[in-house]
Specification:
By secondary structure, this protein is mainly α. The chain has four helices and two strands, in the order H-H-H-E-E-H. The chain has two domains: 64 residues, Winged helix-like DNA-binding domain superfamily/Winged helix DNA-binding domain (Arc Repressor Mutant, subunit A); 38 residues.
Length: 119
């Protein structure tokens, strides 16, 4: 994960937000993965834990991460995925589920026919 640019006019907490978004998009922290602790991130970015907390609030408000009190911060989604990408992924998953349901119905029907035709 990149470090802060101390010469940047962008506030440190906003740079942290962007750095974490980039790390998530790059696959360093995939959905479901726990982010490093607030103190570890503060050490990495050379800022106070309160600055990291401000960044986490922004990421949580946009739905990128979720905070579980006492357990840490977890990635919910990749912020790089557009609504169109998500819709396409949902359509693909829907097709897979329909195919699985179709296959299961045929297995059940075949088993019932096989069982009925037993002497």
């Amino acid at each position: 994960m990149r470090v802060l640019d101390v010469g940047s006019p962008v506030a440190p907490y906003l740079q942290i937000v962007e750095a974490i978004r980039e790390a998530i998009c790059d696959g360093e922290y995939p959905p479901g993965h726990q982010l490093p602790s607030r103190h570890k991130l503060a050490d990495h970015f050379a800022v106070s834990p309160m600055t990291v907390s401000g960044a986490m609030r922004i990421l949580a408000a946009e739905g990128t991460v979720v905070t579980h009190q006492g357990r840490g911060v977890y990635v919910l989604r990749n912020p790089g995925m557009s609504a169109r990408d998500l819709a396409a992924e949902i359509d693909e998953l829907r097709g897979r589920v329909e195919q699985l349901e179709h296959n299961q119905r045929h297995r059940i029907q075949d088993a019932a026919v096989h069982h009925h035709n037993k002497p």
